Amino acid sequence: MNEVWIDRFITDGVAFIPINAAPYGDHIQLLCRDGEIHHVNRTAVSFLQAVVQVFGVDLSTLRKQYGQAIGRKQLIPIPLSRAYTLVPFKTRMPIGNQVTTGWFVAEEIQSFLPDSKMTALIRLVNKQVIKVFHDEDWCLRQMRHVVLAQHRYQHLHSQLQNYRIHEAKTPYRTY
User: Fold this and answer.
1) Which of 32, 57, 93, 120 has the least C-beta neighbours within 10 A?
2) By three-state DSSP, how is residue 169 classified?
3) Residue 25: its pLDDT value, please?
4) Residue 79 and residue 151: Cα distance in Å, rounded?
5) What residue ranges do the domains of the chain occupy?
6) Which residues pair with 130 in a beta bridge?
7) Degrees to nearest 5, angle at CA 147 with 143 and 148
């Protein structure tokens, strides 16, 4: 059943946010483009790992690669394709050891609104508004990091296109 939610997030999701609610306890809220909100009985970390696996990549490798590009070790935007980047924001105050990070599809973020000195509101393309525990300036810097990570992604993948498979100076045909 969880695979259905992963596919739904990739095709129609705008964010997934960790929350506490009965009867699941610590689970995620899946926000969709059409405004629907679904409760998925899975932690944010395991859901993120499952989404990244669909793209055939390893989360720790991506964090290292793009963290170096933006000079960070935490809250690193993760480009999964040329037009699909997941960007993390702190979406709740933890109780104990809980995960605080919610993940948003960067291309679905419309704007940021100041909420207080230490919080901001993310307005999504579908008009949903989510409170995050960062100030507006931090959120704007995070979106600049998204652009840097996307440029790094494009640079890495354009280099891969230049490689050709060959043996003994006789190129194989690549289709």
Assistant:
1) 93
2) coil
3) 75
4) 9
5) 2-171
6) 122
7) 115
